[in-house]
Amino acid sequence: MVKSYLRYALDDSFGTVTSRGCRSVAALSHDYIISGHDERVSVWNCRTGEARVHFDAKPDDLYNPSDVTAFVCSHSRNKWLYVGYHDGSIRRFEMPPALPTDAVSVIHEDFKVHGHKSAITCLAISPSQQLLASGSQDCCIIIWDTTGDLGLFRLEGHRNEVCDLRFVSHSQGSESHLKSRKLGVGSAVGRNSDDILGFLISVSKDCIVRIWDLTSQLCIQTVVHSTAELYGLAINQNETRMYIAGAENRIRCYKLDMSGGEKDTSSTYDIPVYAKQLSTLNRQEAHGRCRKLCIVYPGDSMDSPGKPDTGSQMEIEHKGLLLSVSSNFVVFYRLFDSKEASKRQKRRLKRVAEKQRARCNKLREAVAATGRSVDTKFDALEDEIAYLEKLLSGSNPLETSDIDPFDPQNDVSDQAATDEINYMFAVNVLERVASFVAIPNGFVVGHSTNCVSVWRMNVNKLVQAKAKDEGNSDMVSQVERIHILNMVGHPGPILGLCISPNDMMCCSFSVDCTKIWNSRTLHCIRTLDTKSVTCAYFIAGNKHLMLGTAKGTLEVVYLDACEVTELYKVAPEVNKRSRGLDVVAMTEHPDHSSFAAAFRDRSVKLFRYVLKKKGTVDSLCLKDIGEISLTDDPTGICYSSDGRLLAVALEDSTIQTYYADTLKPFLSLYGHKLPVTSIDISSDGALLASSSLDKTTKIWGLDFGNIRRSLLGHSAAVVKCRWINGTHYLVTTGLDALIKMWDCDTYQLICQLRGHSSAVRSLAISADAHYFISASDDSTIRFWKRTDEQLFLSEERERDLDIQLEHEATRDDINHPIPVDRDALVNKASRKTIESVKATEDLMRVVDEAEEYRSALEDYQRELREYELLMADKGPIKKYGTPDISAPTEPAAPLELFNRTPTEHVMLALSTISHNVIHEVLIALPFIYAEKILAYIVQGLEAYQAHISRNVLNLHTIEMCAKACMLLLQMYFRQFYAQSHQRPLLAKLEKLLPVALQHELVSCS
Known about the structure:
Layout: E1 4-14, E2 25-27, E3 32-37, E4 40-45, E5 50-56, E6 68-73, E7 80-85, E8 89-94, E9 105-108, E10 111-114, E11 120-125, E12 131-136, E13 140-145, E14 150-156, E15 162-168, H1 175-183, E16 199-204, E17 209-213, E18 218-223, E19 230-235, E20 241-246, E21 250-256, E22 275-277, E23 281-282, E24 292-296, E25 320-325, E26 329-335, H2 338-369, H3 381-391, H4 417-420, E27 421-428, E28 433-439, E29 442-447, E30 451-457, H5 459-463, H6 473-476, E31 479-485, E32 496-499, E33 505-509, E34 514-518, E35 524-528, E36 533-539, E37 544-549, E38 553-558, E39 563-569, E40 583-588, E41 594-599, E42 603-614, E43 617-629, E44 634-639, E45 645-650, E46 654-659, E47 665-670, E48 676-681, E49 687-692, E50 697-701, E51 707-711, E52 718-723, E53 729-734, E54 738-743, E55 748-754, E56 760-765, E57 771-776, E58 781-792, H7 793-809, H8 823-826, H9 834-872, H10 874-880, H11 902-911, H12 918-924, H13 927-949, H14 959-971, H15 973-978, H16 983-1004
Parallel strand pairs: 5-9
Antiparallel strand pairs: 1-58, 2-3, 3-4, 4-5, 6-7, 7-8, 8-10, 11-12, 12-13, 13-14, 15-16, 16-17, 17-18, 19-20, 20-21, 21-22, 21-23, 24-25, 25-26, 26-27, 28-29, 29-30, 30-31, 32-33, 33-34, 34-35, 36-37, 37-38, 38-39, 40-41, 41-42, 42-43, 44-45, 45-46, 46-47, 48-49, 49-50, 50-51, 52-53, 53-54, ...
Helix pairs in contact: 2-3, 9-11, 9-12, 11-13, 12-14, 13-14, 13-16
């Protein structure tokens, strides 16, 4: 009989609010924020600290859950959430009309596109909500059609990661015209003046700002003034000013004129300049790199933040605030309107003129001191100063230290950055910033320490502040933190996990704190302010927790009161071999009356629980009952289930076993080549498992100490190994982010669990093996639950092989020769995925089925004509009699066609292909199939034309068929043009396709 197993499946993940790798955060209000963590995006109630909505990707057996890296919310009547992932995919979720109050709601995506090869770094939505731009670490930008759910084109030009994107208004084109041009039906769609957005501005780590014309799909200007990586980009409400910042200690300001009225004066050609550089604004070096720039205006709302106002006659219509976000600071700059900027400009020029006159007078006095006189008259003061300095050359230099040429106040240009922008103050947000978003009257900060803070600011008062008040404490007090969401998880990597004996509670600990979780609700029920905890376990009774720290202390924590009732510390004078007093590991004796602790000073100490009176209450205390000296630093320790043996793993790659009662050595296990990271003894005491940095897991027999088997399954170091109670099933975790289950009776891999995106360093299994938990470096705890689904090894190996083959089919580094025109591949927005590969195979299968039936029908028609001709000739029949030949029978339609004609069968298959994969499907087709599909499309259009003439309703839409036809002609234009027998087919398409599309357009309108 074939052996079967029960499958463990990922039930949930918890312990994180925001991930360090997620660059986005959003807010519905000051009380509800949206953050990305792990592979999901969640809506949080900041007052209660609970999640209300989870936006999760649909489960996929072929791909690991990919982490969220960026997301953006559309602000329209139907709000949408677009989420970018680490694998380069983008998913769209529909926001619920109202947030649930009783339970957490889980929402799955309604569509998914995949065009990037690397992680998504930034997303931007056009104000009309019709276009979505995505930037990635693969240096590319892709423009997506949000209404048609497909990629339009790809923009290539950056040499490094794209960091920020912004849409800017177009003066001539429109989004609807752009998309209709791309689809080849530009004459059928009119322009709309409300969605005039045809420019995109991008900044990258390659120190370059690029301005793209989306209509021509070309970069029309490259700004190369910066000398360091660029991260932040902001555009004012009138779209007349652009601010960029990054690793250099300055904010660069540009004047935007998207009409192309500005010309490049340094060139002899009439080249338009869309972004003209103004003078730069220096930043304080202590604030660090600027990671993001945001502009806030008084009166902004959640529904339409930062809506462009391009109809104003003034160059800068509104006053506002420019927020520069660095690692720990949010720096406030005040933006002036055109009227105030003009006044500041006049005052600046007046001050500069006064300084120049004073400088000129000093130069005249110096010239007069040399006995010379100047009678020349000058048109400008600058000319006179230059003449006097030239006249005095060769003599001692004039002391002009009061004139700083780098001071922006001494700028003599007509437009200076300080006329329109001025530094106010900086706010310390206390924790390192990972993501940031400005909201009306506030901002939200996602920290790299797994917490989110919400800040409120009085924008009106800050904008109307007097110059003398800028930077004082009264202005700084206008910005205050109102919420901090930091109780959900650990601020740093999780160092270990443990489960209570009754399986009702879980414990996780890090350097800063220890948290107790309810294993049913996965909610945090206790947070202990502990420091440097290295190991922990629940004491029998589930009311106490034992902690070992890096300071060499053992702490007994009473969970009901969350207080330490007993503290044991090794005396310094006792430590003779000490290189540190860290408590490395602890294990409780099976009789629950004592435990052993391994210390960094190369010793294992044994302790017994005792009850002592402290006042009127019995308190649990510790008593030292024994010690074992070791030859090297310990790394792990465990008791056998019967309490007979105590095993200790050492850094010298060995495992020492001792008799637990006499503490005498029993067996020394040699075999690992690198230090052992974890050990565990099976529940029957027969086997010992050990994991090591040498990427192996070894199974030892405790009867003779021999190696039963060395398991090679992980591609990186194996960190933890744990036996499932009552079985010989072993669970291992490694730095390769995989969890593997082994059957150590047959030494076969049962299955591997994919879920973590970083190294899995902690593992704990419940006593009844109903669930286990694992934690990785990203502070995420994942809950794996045993299901009723049976698992067979043969099926699991076939599944692994299918996954490997399908992943191999989507590789982009294998260049297969394809006859597609290269121009059709350059700017394609999509990429090959498992979905597109399967759709290609299905389409080829449909064409083969249709061709088989069509050829059978043609043979039948030919045989029928031959039979009719034979029966019509009466002469041979009269002479020789009627031949013994029966009439041919019409072939029955295959079941796969469902009584459809071959043309209908192919047209229906084309109409069911998704918009986001149609390009990749047709690219992967062999040319012979492209010819057949085009022939079927012509037959389908002829049938469609006949239905139109008879006013018969067509049951199949031709939208996707027409799109497939245009794409095939674009891809295989040279082949079709070179083959003369295909030209009549193209002529028919030219005649039938416009009529069909016009009829569809009229029907839709």
